[in-house]
Amino acid sequence: MRMRARTPLGNGAGKQRSASWPWARDGAMIFAFARTTDRPTLRMTDLPDDMHWMQRCMDLAKAAAECGEVPVGSVVVHGATLLGEGRNRVEELRSPIAHAEIEAIQQALAVAGDKRLPDATLYCSLEPCFLCAGAILHSRIRRVVFAARDPKFGAVRSLGQILEDPRMNHRCSVHEGLLHEVSAEMLRAFFRARR
């Protein structure tokens, strides 16, 4: 698959931004990746920077909590290149689909210039829900790494295993548990403060 190289948003390429994309308003920096035809195999041992990307998810989750949102952050990367990032914005946008994973995937698709991200990895501080799992499958993301399970809405391990379901025409490699206690404590603290 060929990916179109894009100039990074936020370096004067503001005309490419859409006012309807919430991340464009924030001046978020998205990095471009070079045109490529190789399809690297993504394995846990090949990516020593999993901790780096998960830590970025935690930073985004913390930013969400500071804005009164459920603390969830997500990033999409291709190799070592950040394609998109997001945090929950359900309250801010008054939208039940303004999830961190959706925002990160939308940014990544805009950078890739395609409707698919077959060699990408999505990192998330919380297990994706059914909505986000569907978006992950439709965008053909190869690998998903999440921190904490979501016993009420989780579609990857808790309530279902949709990303690895053999009935699907696309499946993802799933890894869980990286920084799970940090994420779980952030979520507990957020909901304790709301009670």
Structure description:
It is a single chain. The protein is of the alpha/beta class and about 200 residues long. The chain has six helices and five strands, in the order H-H-E-E-H-H-E-H-E-E-H. The protein has a five-stranded mixed β-sheet with strand order 2-1-3-4-5. Helix 2 (about 50-65) runs parallel beside helix 6 (about 180-195). The longest helix is centred in the first third of the chain and has 17 residues, at about 50-65. The protein is globular and about 40 Å long. The N and C termini lie far apart (about 50 Å).
Between the first and last Cα atoms, what is the distance in angstroms? 49 Å
Question: Count of helical segments?
Answer: 6
Largest sheet: 5 strands, mixed
Helix content range: 25-40%
Silhouette = globular
Gyration radius, in Å: 16 Å
> What is the strand arrangement across the widest sheet?
2-1-3-4-5
SSE inventory with pairings:
Layout: H1 22-25, H2 50-66, E1 73-78, E2 81-87, H3 90-93, H4 100-112, E3 120-126, H5 130-138, E4 143-148, E5 173-176, H6 180-194
Parallel strand pairs: 3-4, 4-5
Antiparallel strand pairs: 1-2, 1-3
Helix pairs in contact: 2-6
